Amino acid sequence: MRIGEVLKSARTRQSLDIRTVEEQTKIRIKYLRALEAEEWDVLPNPAYATGFLRTYAQLLGLDAEALVDEYRRQAGADYGVPLSPGGERVLEQGRRPLGSGGPGLGWLLAGAAVVIVGALLVLGLTGGDDEGDDGGKDRAEARQERRAERRKERRQEQRQQQAAAQPQRVTLRLEVDSNVSVCLLGDGERPLVDGQVLIAGSAEGPYEADRFDLRFPSGYDRGQFRLFLNGEPRRLPETLGPAAFVITPPDKVRAGPEPGPECP
After folding, report:
1. Which pLDDT tens digit goes with each residue over 107-136?
2. Which of 55, 88, 135, 243 is placed for a possible disulfide with 239 were both Cys, Cβ 3.0 to 4.6 Å?
3. Separation of alpha carbons 257 and 18, rounded Å
4. Would you tell me how many other CB atoms lie within 10 Å of the CB of residue 35?
5. Domain 3-125, what fold?
6. Is 53 exposed, middle or buried (0-12, 13-18, 19+ CB in 10 A)?
7. Handedness of CA 237, 259, 233, 188 (dihedral sign)
8. Sheet with 243-248, side-by-side order of all strands
9. What is the CA radius of gyration of the chain?
10. Other Cβ atoms closer than 10 A to 250
């Protein structure tokens, strides 16, 4: 009998469908059908063919080595293993029904063969897919890097546009409600209010500059005056004793060095 006929006949007698064989041997159905049809070119290579054939035969209780020898003779592959003396052996020698007896040496060997074949399948048949996955990951990472770079460039452009839209100079006006000593310097420390005591009801400004130094040599109370920057009211923090502030565009106010008794 041909190899495929022996396999299919043994499987049919044991009422095993092809999917059950796939589950027990971990050999894909298309390769099991190729063995039964003797379509050797469907199998990955002769090494896989002998491994699949040995595992399938052991599951069915057939003489696996006799089937492997027959495959080598039919496929014309020389593996350096001679056929058994006297030609073909009985292909179904020593067949044992499934499920009878304990797990003998044959079943242990069959399990080992299944593990080896599975490992070879993972390494040999899916290696290209792994490389493809790695390539896909590399392309995805490159796209993410490009998107991050574009976002960074857009943020930088937005900051530049915002900086260009901001006023390059600031206007300042003081409205005095109670007498207060003030020193006000404009661009280049040019005195605008030269350490004078501003009288209640008076006003200074509006002045325009790219920097102001506003100083209170004798300190101040926030109720003594009202400060306007770019036409908008601005309250200075409460302080004790002499105080000074640096004012820059658009309306930034920060503490300056403690002023002396004279202006500037």
Report:
1. 455 555 655 655 555 445 444 444 455 566
2. 243
3. 92
4. 23
5. 434 Repressor (Amino-terminal Domain) (1.10.260)
6. buried
7. negative
8. 191-198, 180-185, 212-216, 243-248, 252-255
9. 47
10. 12
Rounded CA separation 9/57 (Å): 12
Under 8 Å between Cβ of 226 and 204 = no
> Which pLDDT score is estimated for 197?
87
DSSP alpha helices (H): ranges in the chain?
A: 3-13, 18-25, 29-37, 46-60, 64-75, 105-125, 127-165
Largest CA distance in the chain: 131
Tokens of 72: 């080598």
HEC string for 54-120? HHHHHHHCCCHHHHHHHHHHHHCCCCCCCCCCCCCCCCCCCCCCCCCCCCCHHHHHHHHHHHHHHHH
How many C-beta atoms lie closer than 10 Å to residue 37's C-beta? Answer: 14
Instruction: Quote the pTM value.
Output: 0.39
